[in-house]
Specification:
170 residues; alpha+beta
Length: 170
């Protein structure tokens, strides 16, 4: 284990026996970040079934609520026979306890409870996999005609290098 004395922020990655990321924990001083930024999870879990990868985002041990952060809490990535993403299902949860009926309707338009995205309109990739070194046993599943765009999203090293290695393994 690497000595992290003096390091405040650490990413803890838990990997299954098949070499796939199972959980990502974003830690501050060795514990899950307590009050993460709204658009960032402090824990992400992955489950693998047949040709599906199920990604669930958490803040403080609870699925992220759309009414707090305008985000979905779960995504199901559907893989074709070549392990390309051919569809993503998005699921959202809300806390409507402090919201009137007009605003509830607006929230469901802004961040739908359920939606499906295919590669017809956009490139598909697994949202939080870019943080993982293991990914899916090293592979970084994307949609069939995916083109890597070198922009701010991936930051510098090690994320960018990890994504590029994963794309080569596909």
């Amino acid at each position: 284990m690497k000595d992290t004395t003096g390091v405040n922020f650490i990413l803890k990655e838990i990997v299954d026996k098949q070499g796939r990321v199972k959980e990502l924990d974003f830690l501050e001083k060795g514990k899950l970040i307590k009050d993460p930024l709204c658009y960032l999870a402090n824990k992400v879990t992955y489950k693998y079934k047949n040709n599906e990868i199920i990604e669930t985002l958490y803040q403080n041990d609870h699925p992220i609520l759309a009414t707090d952060c305008e985000m979905n809490y779960k995504r199901i990535y559907h893989l074709d026979k070549e392990k390309n993403i051919d569809k993503i299902e998005y699921f959202s949860k809300y806390d409507f306890s402090q919201i009137d009926s007009t605003e509830i309707k607006q929230w469901k338009e802004w961040v739908p409870e359920y939606k499906v995205v295919t590669p017809d309109s956009t490139q598909l990739e697994i949202e939080y996999y870019y943080h993982s070194f293991s990914k899916m046993n090293g592979a970084y599943p994307v949609s069939k005609n995916y083109k890597f765009i070198d922009d701010y999203y991936y930051g510098d090293q090690p994320e960018k290098e990890s994504v590029l290695k994963g794309l080569q393994k596909n």
